[in-house]
Specification:
The complex is a heterotrimer of chains A (535), B (331) and C (308). Chain B has 331 residues and is mostly helical. Helix content of chain B is 65%, strand content 0%. Chain B is globular. Classes of the chains: A alpha/beta (535), B mainly alpha (331), C mainly alpha (308). Chains in contact: A-B, A-C, B-C.
């Protein structure tokens, strides 16, 4: 190899914030050869996106960049702004994490793609249109002729990401920077986009700088990998080498941070805790002042049974109705059908009828930022349920309970007078768990409790949930789109799509011998099909 | 709706940091976690230190905004001077100094800002007028606040058909030429200060109702409200403990914007000769008198105009500062 | 689009009915009649006058009669300007008011938008602080203070422009009223445009545009301005209403024979029919303006389809 295509040499980026300088990237070096794929891996705050944005010189003005980024030998940090604009979109192009907002909402698709061609290749009129249509076809947009004059809002997230790719490829760049291009997409769509990138890479012979937090993608996608942590590259090398023999502790920890183990099964004769028959939920989509309303059926008739001590995993992509089902089962949403909790029918109970049961049925939500009231202290948040269900307790006793609950979730009880915004995502999720636990519930609805967290934090929260289940014999209703997490925690799994159950059964059966094509597609997309069954 | 489609939104933190210090406040414990040790969750020993509430955080940001703080100080000064000033000055509101008709600012006889054409002390009149203008601002804003918050919160919380009907009503009210109806009201019922309070308050509640309804609808879908439902917390408690404290930020911001609007409306009416009546006066009335005497006694126009403009200026600055301090997008 | 327009016009009917009804009954319960002027009229003459204007009929009858006449575009006779019908007065005043109002809103857009855009692009620079400081002053100083000061300074002291009067709408007579009327709206529009522009410039699709290799000019003019205009467009409705209201004082101050002046005179003289006529006229105007603004908005935003 003579000269690398892109050579990042001792790159440092410092943001001059009003509160003082913050160094986001420190002495980062790596290089990419032509046609090769390098993955830049790291958790949130590792500086991986800042690094890639620096290569395009798209950082905000308050960023100070030192070092060198050589593209074909030319230091991009030193070239004129005009020269840099010739490079962007022409030699190096970029796709982003946010397909929903990365396209101009007021311009038609064809115009947005065509604009790059006019800018860099001088292609106008018919030639421009022909090339755009060809690109749309290449990225797998159905009916390119019609989509040419569509606006972005008429396209799905996956299709918008395809349009972004078409735009990026328009001038046949030598390097494509892909910044978490599949993170916002459903797993099956994610797999399609990755396949598309792979095949286009061969076709165009371009190099890819792939930024991601997802190690399973790296393993399947990248030739080389650089692991970043707190602004520094801690380890880099060929993907195979790094994955097989990680040198750095942090890399090892990241690779280790895969939910492992299987749940010890609950006894088969355990009593039924919650059962549901033909549950349906519909939402009003269009409300008319007079006459009937228009409805959307989110859950279309679902039966299920959970026994004491069991975990039922509910799996599905966005819009499958899994979260709606969970809320309906706990009677947080109006629904049709029978719901029984410990043998008694709860489907007809009103708010005050449900109240005594609420302490037994608790919830932990996905969004650690949205699920805690920002204006209450952590102690007030956790003790709120006690005030409802144990009004006999005095302040002192409540405080003692709060301290115990915080210790249970491994948080320092001294933090109880602080406010939620002072905590990290993982800590907030622990607070949410403590809020549920303090009532000594029997059934816990876990709605994507780890999805918003970094992998390494995720694993610790999962360990916590697993320990708590064992210690208190809790029953979990676990909702997630993340198959590896579901596999590690569940006895039974229920696969949902468009409000219906596609397949259900014992976790191991679903994961090793899926019967339905949709389940197989999900597993394949999550790269679980050929992963060794970890002990 | 973004929650399911963007599972790793936390990673935005390593995109381009915002000038305000990124999505997390500078003192938060979020950000990169050391990999091997458990999350950094120990800072204090046995005592439980108090955290910084959002209100205190907002106050801290506001107090760093020099323009807003200067405005606040000036505003307080204007209010204090208007309230106690008339007692300290030797002249009464309608007292005529037979030796000084339309004299300019002078130290003689303590006419610090001159007299009007009828020999009445201008400073005294401006301060009395300020009392009226400020009281209209306060009362009318309160009227609009109470109606707006109640209407908006009920509409948003009940939702469904009730919400639909209530908001249609607001839409209809919006398209009324309100200013003209208020003028009509003043013409018909005479120039009565209580009518001014009520009429202006009744005009200004519409925006407040919309804002509060929007807030309520948004908050209703937030997960912490759902969590409260799941805990079995009663509706009334949810409204008082969760909804209102969280909706209060935008309401405060909007009130600081309503107050100058109301002052302006009152002076507009008074200027047209439809506002408060003799012997009462207000800044609008004084400006209107000043316009008539503009060429011979310009101070009669300039003094009340200055007080009015300074008050409006400060309120707007303060409103901007409050918005920056309370806006959740900047944290 | 056509169906939407018709639907909106239909929705305006109840609004206008409310306006007419409120103003009709308010005026009728008002103490003091139109003829208690300066000198006392003999009772029989007053009775004749009352009969001539149908004021002796029961209220519901008067209401129905008024509505019937309104449908034919007849606002009735003015009580004070005895030789004119209200319709004639409005039609006399409207072109004048339209001219200064239209010019003011145009001026507000032509000056306010570029100022806002410039301040947003040069955010936190001297330009930004200067524009925003001036804008805040423009908001804080009401037009009924500015207008007389303008008249005094440019009209009386410097003698550059006429301090008042209409003179058939000659350009020098237009300048001061139009500027005074538009200053507050210039300030509002500049502030809104700045805020909205800053938000758009921070959005993801602007990053995409830069990543395409477009220069700053292309980024701003091709990608940023149109989306940033949307919130400002939706403010145009209130802005127009504000200008119409403002024109009432401005016409008063500069002695311009527009509807605003008739309105104030009517209100002070208890000229029932004239006041009602103007209120109804303003109601129709505001409803129409809001409709036009909404249609304009739909032309800018493809995502809004008025087929509902």
């Amino acid at each position: 190899m003579t000269q690398p295509l892109l050579d990042v040499d001792k790159l440092s980026v410092t943001f001059q914030l009003p509160t003082g300088p913050v160094t986001a990237v420190k002495d980062v070096s790596f290089s990419i050869a032509e046609g090769e794929t390098l993955a830049l891996v790291g958790e949130s705050g590792s500086g991986k996106s800042v690094t890639s944005t620096a290569a395009m010189r798209l950082l905000p003005e308050l960023a100070e960049t030192t070092g060198a980024i050589r593209f074909n030998g030319e230091n991009l940090l030193e070239v004129s702004a005009k020269r840099m604009r010739r490079v962007r979109g022409n030699d190096i192009s970029m796709i982003f994490q946010e397909p929903m907002t990365s396209l101009n909402p007021l311009h038609r698709i064809g115009r947005q793609i065509g604009e790059v061609l006019t800018k860099h290749k001088g292609l106008k009129g018919d030639a421009n249109r022909r090339r755009v249509l060809e690109l749309l076809k290449q990225v797998g947009i159905p009916e390119p002729e019609r989509r040419f004059s569509s606006y972005p809002y008429e396209l799905s997230g996956g299709q918008r990401q395809r349009v972004m790719i078409a735009m990026a490829l328009a001038c046949e760049p030598k390097l494509l920077i892909a910044d978490e291009p599949t993170t916002a997409l459903d797993v099956t769509v994610q797999a399609q986009i990755l396949d598309l990138l792979k095949s286009l890479q061969t076709q165009y012979g371009m190099a890819i700088l792939f930024i991601t937090h997802d190690l399973s993608i790296v393993r399947h996608f990248a030739d080389h990998v650089a692991v970043m942590r707190q602004g520094e590259v801690v380890e880099s090398g060929r993907t195979v080498d790094v994955f097989d023999a990680p040198q750095h502790d942090y890399t090892r920890m990241l690779l280790d941070a895969i939910p492992r183990g299987r749940k010890a099964p609950a006894p088969a004769d355990a009593p039924v805790m919650l059962s549901a028959r033909d549950v349906k939920v519909r939402f009003v989509t269009h409300r008319r002042l007079f006459g009937g309303n228009a409805y959307f059926e989110a859950v279309r008739g679902i039966d299920l049974t959970i026994r004491r001590g069991e975990t039922l995993g509910i799996v599905g992509e966005s819009g499958s109705g899994k979260s709606t089902l969970g809320r309906a089962l706990l009677r947080l949403l109006e629904s049709e059908g029978d719901i029984r909790f410990e043998e008694s029918d709860i489907s007809a109970l009103d708010k005050s009828g449900m109240r005594p049961l609420r302490s037994k049925l608790q919830v932990v939500f996905q969004d650690p930022f949205g699920s805690l009231s920002p204006r209450m202290t952590v102690g007030d948040i956790i003790s709120e349920g006690l005030k409802v269900h144990h009004p006999e307790l005095n302040r002192r006793q409540r405080e003692a309970e709060v301290i115990a609950a915080l210790e249970e979730v491994a948080l320092d009880p001294a933090m109880r007078n602080r406010y939620p915004h002072e905590f990290s995502g993982g800590q907030r999720q622990r607070i949410a768990i403590a809020r549920a636990l303090i009532l000594k519930p029997e059934l816990l609805l876990l709605d994507e409790p780890t999805s918003a967290l970094d992998r390494s934090v995720q694993v610790r929260v999962i360990d916590l949930l697993r320990n708590l289940q064992q210690k208190y014999g809790l029953t979990y209703l676990f909702i997630s789109h993340d198959l590896s997490v579901v596999r590690a925690l569940s006895d039974h799994v229920l696969v949902m799509k468009e409000g219906r159950v596609i397949e259900q059964g014992p976790a191991e059966t679903i994961f090793t011998e899926p019967a339905e094509p949709y389940t197989r597609a999900l597993l394949k997309a999550a790269f679980l099909e050929n992963e060794e069954v970890a002990a | 709706m973004t929650s399911e489609s963007k599972p790793y939104s936390g990673d935005n933190a390593d995109g381009a940091p915002l000038p305000a210090g990124g999505p997390n406040p500078p003192h938060s414990h979020s950000g990169p976690n050391p990999p091997h040790s458990p999350e950094p969750e120990t800072t204090a020993a046995s005592a439980a230190p108090a955290g910084e509430s959002l209100a205190r955080d907002a106050w801290r940001r506001l107090s760093q905004n020099r323009a807003a703080m200067a405005s606040l100080a000036l505003l307080i000064a204007i209010v204090v001077v208007c309230v106690i000033g008339p007692w300290l000055l030797p002249w009464g509101l309608a007292e005529v100094d037979w030796n000084a008709f339309g004299t300019g600012p002078t130290l003689d006889n303590a006419h610090f800002l001159g007299t009007d054409a009828n020999g009445r002390d201008l400073l005294t009149r401006v301060l009395y007028g300020g009392r009226i203008s400020l009281s209209v601002a306060l009362v009318a804003s309160l009227v609009s606040l109470v109606i707006g918050v109640l209407y908006g919160a009920i509409s948003g919380y009940l939702g469904g058909r009730v919400d639909n009907l209530m908001m249609r009503f607001v839409d209809i009210m919006y398209s009324l030429p309100f200013m003209f109806l208020v003028i009509l009201l003043m013409v018909v019922f005479g120039r009565n200060i209580f009518l001014i309070y009520a009429a202006i308050g009744a005009v200004e509640w519409l925006d407040m109702a919309r804002i509060v309804r929007g807030q309520t609808l948004a908050l209703k879908r937030r997960e912490f409200i759902e969590a409260a439902h799941a805990l079995g917390v009663r509706d009334t408690k949810i409204v008082t403990r969760h909804l209102i404290p969280n909706a209060i930020g935008p309401v405060i911001i909007y009130v600081t914007l309503t107050v100058p609007k109301v002052i302006l409306l009152e002076s507009f009416l008074s200027f047209l000769g439809l506002g408060v009546q003799e012997p009462l006066t207000s800044w609008g009335v004084l400006i209107s008198e000043g316009v008539d005497m503009m060429e011979s006694a310009p101070w009669m126009l300039l003094v009340p105009s200055f007080f009015l403009a300074a008050t409006l200026f400060c309120l707007n600055f303060l409103g901007d500062g409050l918005r920056d301090a309370l806006d959740p997008r900047t944290r | 689009m056509l169906i939407y327009t018709l639907k909106r016009l239909l929705q305006a009917v109840p609004t206008l009915l409310i306006v007419i009804t409120i103003s009709f009954f308010l005026m009728r319960v008002a103490p003091g009649g139109p003829f208690d002027g300066e000198r006392q009229l003999p009772p029989e003459i007053e009775a004749n006058l009352m009969a001539a204007y149908h004021l002796d009929e029961p209220l519901p009858m008067q209401y129905l009669r008024y509505m019937g006449n309104l449908l034919q575009g007849d606002f009735g006779p003015s009580f004070k300007y005895k030789d004119f019908s209200v319709t004639e007065l409005i039609m006399q005043g409207f072109p004048v008011s339209l001219e200064i109002g239209g010019l003011a809103i145009l001026l507000a857009l032509i000056i306010g938008l570029p100022l806002g855009i410039a301040a947003a692009i040069k955010r936190n620079s001297t330009v930004d602080y200067l524009v925003m400081g001036t804008a805040l002053t423009g908001i804080a100083v009401p037009n009924f203070v500015l207008a007389p000061i303008f008249a005094l300074v440019f009209g009386v002291l410097l003698g550059w422009l006429p301090a008042g009067g209409w003179n058939g709408g000659a350009l020098p007579n237009l300048v001061l009223p139009v500027v005074a009327l538009s200053i507050q709206q210039i300030a509002y529009i500049a502030r809104m445009m700045r805020a909205s522009m800053i938000e758009v410039l921070g959005s993801h699709f602007i990053r995409t545009a830069r990543a395409k290799g477009l220069n700053e000019g292309e980024v701003i003019f091709r990608h940023a301005i149109r989306p940033a205009l949307l919130p400002v467009m939706s403010y145009l409705g209130p802005a127009i209403a504000g200008i119409i209201t403002g024109s009432v004082v401005i016409e008063q101050i500069f002695g311009i024979p527009g509807i605003g002046r008739y309105f104030v005179q009517g209100a002070l003289n208890r000229d029932y029919t004239l006041v009602m006529g103007t209120v109804v006229f303003y109601g129709v105007l505001i409803v129409l303006m809001n409709l036009i603004v909404d249609l304009l908005y739909s032309a800018l935003d493809p995502q809004i389809r008025y087929d509902d």
